[in-house]
Design a protein that fits this description.
By secondary structure, this protein is of the alpha+beta class. About 25% of the residues lie in helices and about 25% in strands. Bound molecules: FE2/S2 (inorganic) cluster and fe (ii) ion (FE2). Keywords: 2Fe-2S, Iron, Iron-sulfur, Metal-binding, Oxidoreductase.
Length: about 375
């Protein structure tokens, strides 16, 4: 059993990108690595678990973080709340499926009842007088840190990581002009992928593969029009400027958001928010991927399309069809990568500094979490 919290485990990716290797192949194939990663990355810091639009007031959703079942809802002030999905009486699962709630959370077993801030407010027939030292105040729900960023709900099982805004550094300011809080999710889909979640985000972070994997996309998004989009913060990103219309106006049909800066109005932003969210932002819509690890070499993509203005059904279909075409190409190549790494017994490779520097940045953020280092990557100079 390899201990991935040791600095020696990561020494080959710690130098400059020009000297760095790819991640150790075990990171994509080994079940022992998978469980350590689940604890260190998904249990050890913020991760994206739902879209903000999934949790309107009066709704509760059930999600998993690092094999822990949690529920997310809003209190009476509309603030997000997240709790472990377990009753404080004898541990029963509180909520089985996403659904509506009526101002309280009730355990199905003996009807202990909690308000939306997690306070225990009712214990039917429990007769607290006959128990010694029973203080209902310490039997509230176990709260988990939760917040919203870039249209996504993030939670952290680790109480010691920086606040969500600080986690992403300057990204909040960079995205402020889009007014993402005014975007609404118009369609969502979930896809199973036979590839590790890291291969999906690494693939998203580089456009080196553009011409060969995406001939259709290469018409609207050209290799030479890409620039880095990385300040100090836990994310990797690039910008495409300008965005071309392509053969069928796939990316440009929807109506732009209002009040965009001239740069935002002519750019596509492709941002991998650490660890598990991929966000493409165009002046008229956003496409968000939440990556859920299932096992070594297996993951799930929860994809949502959102926009500031309501699109016509035809325009939305056309947009989603184009995205699905491109994304299927990405999934196909990532599954090939997974198979080659796993079944071809890959020994590890090297990165192109021009195209694959974001991957190196991602590897180092990953290694930092394993080693317990709270460090925000610096911004690019270019
Ligand atoms: S286990 Fe929840 S009320 Fe008894
Ligand atoms: Fe791609």
């Amino acid at each position: 059993v390899n201990d991935w919290s040791r600095p020696e485990a990561w020494e080959n990716i710690r130098g400059d990108v020009a000297t760095s290797t790819t991640l150790p192949p075990a990171a994509y194939t080994d079940s022992d690595y998978f469980f350590q990663e689940r604890a260190a990355i998904f249990g050890g810091g913020w991760c994206g678990i739902a879209m903000v639009d999934d949790v309107s007031q009066g709704r509760v959703v059930v999600r998993e973080i690092a094999d822990t079942s949690v529920i997310v809802t809003r209190n009476n002030q509309g603030d997000l709340r997240c709790y472990r999905n377990s009753c404080s009486h004898r541990g029963t699962e509180l909520v089985e499926d996403d659904g509506e709630i009526d101002n309280v959370l009730r355990c199905p077993y003996h009807r202990w009842t909690f308000d939306l801030d997690g306070t225990l407010i009712s214990t039917p027939l429990f007769d607290t007088e006959s128990i010694e030292d029973f203080d209902p105040n310490v039997f509230g729900l176990q709260e988990i840190r939760v917040g919203a960023f870039a249209g996504v709900i993030w939670a952290s099982l680790n109480p010691d990581v920086p606040d969500l805004v600080d986690w992403f550094g300057d990204l909040g300011n960079r995205l402020a002009g889009y007014g993402l809080e005014r975007y609404e999710v118009r369609r969502s889909v979930t896809v199973n992928v036979q590839a590790d979640w890291k291969l999906l985000t690494e693939n998203f972070q580089e456009y080196y593969h553009l011409a060969w994997v995406h001939p259709e996309l290469a018409k609207v998004s050209k290799v030479d029009d890409h620039y880095r989009f990385q300040g100090p913060g836990r994310y990797c990103g690039q910008t495409t400027t300008p965005i071309s219309a392509g053969d069928n106006d796939e990316w440009t049909t929807l109506q732009n958001g209002s009040g965009l800066s001239s740069s935002d109005a002519e750019s596509g932003r492709h941002i991998a928010l650490f660890p598990n969210v991929m966000l493409t932002l165009l002046p008229n819509h956003a496409c968000t991927f939440l990556l859920e690890p299932i096992g070594p070499g297996e993951s799930r993509e929860h994809i949502s399309w959102s926009s500031p203005h309501e699109p016509s059904p035809d325009d939305l279909d056309k947009l989603v069809d184009f995205w699905v075409l491109v994304n299927d190409q990405d999934i196909d190549i990532c599954q090939k990568a997974q198979r080659g790494i796993e079944r071809g017994r890959f020994k590890g490779g090297r990165l192109s500094p021009r195209f694959e520097e974001p991957l190196h940045r991602f590897y180092n953020m990953l290694a930092d979490r394993f080693e317990g280092i709270d460090r925000c990557p610096k911004g690019d100079l270019d």
